[in-house]
Specification:
Strand content: 25-35%
Number of strands: 16
CATH class of the largest domain: Alpha Beta
CATH architecture of the largest domain: 2-Layer Sandwich
CATH superfamily of the largest domain: ATP-grasp fold, B domain
Order of helices and strands: EHEHEHEHHEHHEHEEHEHEEEEHEEHHE
């Protein structure tokens, strides 16, 4: 079967390598496309093709359909334009292509908008942190006046973002210059932040939130239209190397509930963090995480499980037991780019 990954995050390299390790019968021919060939996944895939840039969404979807026809694709795992492509399954099915979308287009639109996602979240097992939306300095000041008396620390982040870009913990006593010289990352001075917001006038939707200071948990998952097929929980340390596999029942239950609520499918990741001794939901990442290789060290080969499920049906998939309690790390070996 011919499987195509279009342009996506760097975790695709780990996914391709993991699938090839498990695919002893060589059932799957793995294809990757990207605007540049100088990426690790280009050398890992069985075939690599150049991908155009600058196309509008509809034109890009047309290009994807043409690519699938030309290269006789059986399964398409989209990264770029994943939300738009999730609404086009019928067009691909008409040419014999299965598209592994993480959710419906509507669900993906909600998941990508943290303000809406948090407002609609209904997860008693792991409620979201208290938050307010703001788009002006006046909105920020009003939100700060309400939240600060109830929480020791607050943080900000954009409603739309990936990789934690734009996230900062607010410091009331230190300036951005002092934080910079101290080498402190992901922190911002309150006075500097307010001056910057005032200079912009209005800006894209931001969130002011209760800062959660406990352990963070990253859950790498495989779903089948709302059923959680496999999940590996990684506990991130406050300091020191590696992460610990921690299959906490409450985290797995909360992840299963989110999978059902949003009809999650294929490969995805859920993030939790503890605050005030309670488990809290951070976000759903509708894609493979950067740590998926570490999760798979614990037993289940998640990309291969997801691919086999789409190809053969999930009733036939066998999920190995998770080696709970082991410590894992990404060793980051160097290599040559093709």
């Amino acid at each position: 079967m011919r499987v195509w990954f279009n342009r996506t995050f760097s975790s695709v390299y780990a996914a391709i390598e993991l699938i090839k390790q498990a695919d002893l019968e060589r059932r799957f021919f793995l294809i990757y496309s990207n605007p540049t060939a100088h990426v690790a996944a280009a050398g890992a895939a069985d075939a690599f093709y150049h991908e155009p840039t600058g196309l509008a969404p509809e034109a890009y979807i047309d290009w994807c359909l043409a690519f699938c026809r030309e290269h006789q694709i059986d399964i398409f795992i989209p990264g770029k334009a994943s939300t738009d492509l999730a609404g086009c399954h019928a067009r691909f099915a008409a040419i014999g292509v299965k598209v592994m979308s993480t959710a419906s287009a509507a669900a993906l639109s909600l998941i990508h908008d943290k303000a809406r996602f948090y407002a609609e979240a209904d997860l008693p097992e792991a409620p979201v942190a208290e938050f307010h939306v703001f788009e002006t300095l006046a909105g920020f000041d009003a939100a700060y006046a309400e939240l600060r008396p109830r929480h020791n620390k607050l943080c900000v982040k954009p409603s739309h973002s990936v990789f934690g870009l734009g996230f900062s913990i607010i410091e009331e006593e230190k300036s951005c210059a002092a934080l910079l010289l101290a080498g402190v990352q992901y922190h911002i001075g309150l006075d500097d932040l307010r001056r910057g917001l005032a200079d912009m006038g209005s800006f894209r939707t931001m969130l002011l939130m209760e800062y959660l200071d406990g352990h963070e948990f990253s859950v790498d998952c495989v779903g089948n239209d709302g059923d959680l097929i496999a999940a590996v929980v990684r506990k991130k340390p406050h300091s020191g190397p590696g992460q610990t596999i921690d299959q906490r029942a409450d985290i797995l239950e909360a992840t299963a509930a989110l999978t059902r609520a949003h009809g999650l499918h294929g490969l995805f990741n859920v993030q939790f963090r503890e605050g005030g001794g309670k488990l809290r939901l951070l976000e759903i990442n509708p894609r493979m995480s950067g740590g998926i290789g570490m999760a798979c060290v614990a037993g289940p080969n998640l990309p291969y499980i997801a691919l086999c499920g789409v190809a053969d049906g999930f009733d036939s998939v066998v999920v190995p037991a998770v080696r709970n309690g082991i410590r894992v790390a990404d060793l980051g070996l160097a290599g040559e780019l093709k």
